């Protein structure tokens, strides 16, 4: 009852019991579903696109004797940056001593590959600090910045591709078009993002409001 998924744990125990009780446990054929998940799928795709061997190793795209944990790797790199700043007398880095962990950096690492901004992630990260703690906003900003720096250090190819995609989308939108492409399977994809604007025209009897959607420049 203390595990994260008690019903799944119970089902697994029952399946193991059936295997052990079988006449030949080694020959027992199990149909128990095994859940599999990627190692930060976004970073996996970017590492593959950029042929980034170092990044690929961090997200288990290359053979390894033991599974790699990219979140722990980023947390360790962030701690290196924090420790260096703390020794230089940076107050916020000193405040964060003992706070950096895998859990703390995971959300930022997971979302940065999907285009989250430093400001947006900073707002979410601030909620992870104790209620009423000092330097909350400064610390959250510092932490997010160091996570971004760590990813830049560990996944230079990923960040370069992201910058290229962002700039390409900006230029395409600036030209008045939507970003679109055709997948290798022949499926067309279009991203018609628009920014709504409203214009109010005042009249003697009533005022009229008109809405207009224009392509974004993002």
From TrEMBL:
Name the InterPro entries for this protein.
Answer: DNA-dir_Rpol_C_phage-type, DNA-dir_Rpol_phage-type, DNA/RNA_pol_sf
Residue ranges of the DNA-directed RNA polymerase C-terminal domain? 2-215
Question: One GO CC annotation, please?
Answer: mitochondrial DNA-directed RNA polymerase complex
Task: Give me the reactions it catalyses.
Answer: RNA(n) + a ribonucleoside 5'-triphosphate = RNA(n+1) + diphosphate
State if Nucleotidyltransferase is listed as a keyword: yes
GO terms (molecular function) for this protein are:
DNA-directed RNA polymerase activity; mitochondrial promoter sequence-specific DNA binding
Q: What is its EC number?
A: 2.7.7.6
Which is a GO BP term held by this UniProt record?
mitochondrial transcription
Q: Which UniProt keywords apply?
A: DNA-directed RNA polymerase, Nucleotidyltransferase, Transcription, Transferase
Q: Which family does it belong to?
A: Belongs to the phage and mitochondrial RNA polymerase family.
> What role is this protein assigned?
DNA-dependent RNA polymerase catalyzes the transcription of DNA into RNA using the four ribonucleoside triphosphates as substrates.
The protein, known as: DNA-directed RNA polymerase
Specify the species. Answer: Lynx pardinus
